[in-house]
Amino acid sequence: MRDIVLPCADSLGMIELSPSEAALRAIPAREGRCFSMPESQASGYFWIHAGKDFAVSVTSMTLHRDWQQRCPHPRFVALRHLRSGEYILPDTGLTVKAPYLEGHVSRTRTWICTHKASQPLHSVEIMLAPPFYERYLRAVYRDEAFSAEDAFSSIDGLASFPEMTLLLGQIEAYRGRGASAGLFYRGKVEEAVALVVDRSRNLAAASLATPGQTEHERAVSPEDARAIEHARQRLDDRLTDPVSAEELAHIACMGQTKLRRVFKRAYGCTIVEYRQRQRCARAADLLTTSDASVACVASAVGYRPERLAELFARIYGTTPSAYRESLGQAGSLTSNTIHVDAPRASTRASSAPPIRSIR
């Protein structure tokens, strides 16, 4: 991957920073290479640890003007957690907004996207060349035919994948150096591939879980998809405030029974489960990016501390305090202030899984 990513960084006008230059800018010290844009274009940094067939990276930038990214795009797959910011894909017109988990498979020779100015762009990414994931799948799944590209595509836009969110957070928080860093990153990449394969299988199984139902019956019509999307946006816009079933049904222009049925069919969970996952995802982000107490985080997402602990453990398999400790954030937290009205709470519409629509 170094033969792909590093020339791309150079073509974008990025400037490599020495360890001392990075330290002067208070950039976290990690094993790998660190780049910045010219000061007239952006502040922040792009860090990458690139091997021959895989790479992990962290982007933390604020652009001073709209910027179009254009890079050669050979065959590879990628997994990116966009934690803040947004970008536009000119070929489709699609706007991707944080928080968003992107499973990306290259399908063109050139990657083009447009980033908007003045929006903090923060993401953690894993990139894999075909030799890595094809060799890995042959070794681990010897007796099965499985496409890594299909698996990565299937998890694009998942609203809830806490295991992957935790793994990517661990990659960002890691500060090891030398040979141990290479082993750590490769191990995390292999773990990520296993998680993607397992989740892809589960999604495929879930789509066939209702006996006697055809694919047409399991799908959501375009009209219902648009209607239920409006209802889900209301849930995201009022993440910490009560939203009644009557209000959602009115927004979607359907009865409450149909609302519940279509919502679960579209997003793979009930309305209550979706709301719990989104609140816990917001809590996980606050635990990562602030040093506010767990009680303060719970209040910011509309829960009592004990209720947050219960739901967080159910979704993430650990307590909020243990989650923060696992990320090793003690030395890298940036603020003890929580902005409960931050716009991120209103942009969660982009983090939902794609709806299966009837064409």
Describe how the helices and strands are arranged.
Layout (H helix, E strand, L loop, with lengths): L1 H10 L3 E3 L1 H6 L8 E4 L5 E9 L3 E10 L3 E6 L4 E8 L1 E4 L4 E4 L2 E6 L4 E6 L4 E9 L1 H11 L7 H7 L7 H12 L5 H29 L7 H4 L3 H16 L7 H8 L3 H12 L3 H19 L4 H7 L4 H12 L3 H7 L33
Antiparallel strand pairs: 1-2, 2-3, 3-4, 4-11, 5-10, 6-9, 6-11, 7-8, 7-10
Our measurement of the CA-to-CA distance between the termini, rounded to an integer number of angstroms, reads 37 Å
Strand order of the largest sheet: 1-2-3-4-11-6-9
Radius of gyration equals 21 Å
How many strands appear in the DSSP assignment? 11
Number of helices: 14
- What is the fold-level CATH name, i.e. the topology of the largest domain? Jelly Rolls
- CATH H-level homologous superfamily name of the largest domain: Jelly Rolls
The average pLDDT value, as a whole number, equals 79
| Portion in helices | 40-55%
Helix/strand order, N-terminal first: HEHEEEEEEEEEEHHHHHHHHHHHH
Biggest sheet details: 7 strands, antiparallel
Uncertain spans:
329-359
Q: How many separate domains make up the residues?
A: 2
Helix/sheet category = alpha+beta
Key phrases:
Jelly Rolls, 14 helices, 359 residues, alpha+beta, 11 strands, single chain, 4-stranded antiparallel beta sheet, 7-stranded antiparallel beta sheet, Arc Repressor Mutant, subunit A, globular
Description:
- This protein has 359 residues and is α+β, with helices and mostly antiparallel strands.
- It folds into two domains: 1-208, Jelly Rolls (Sandwich); 220-324, Homeodomain-like (Arc Repressor Mutant, subunit A).
- Helices cover 45% and strands 19% of the residues.
- Helix 4 (148-154) packs across helix 6 (179-207), helix 8 (222-237) packs across helix 9 and helix 11 (271-289) crosses helix 14.
- The protein starts with a helix and ends in a 33-residue tail after the last helix.
- Residues 329-359 have low confidence and may be disordered.
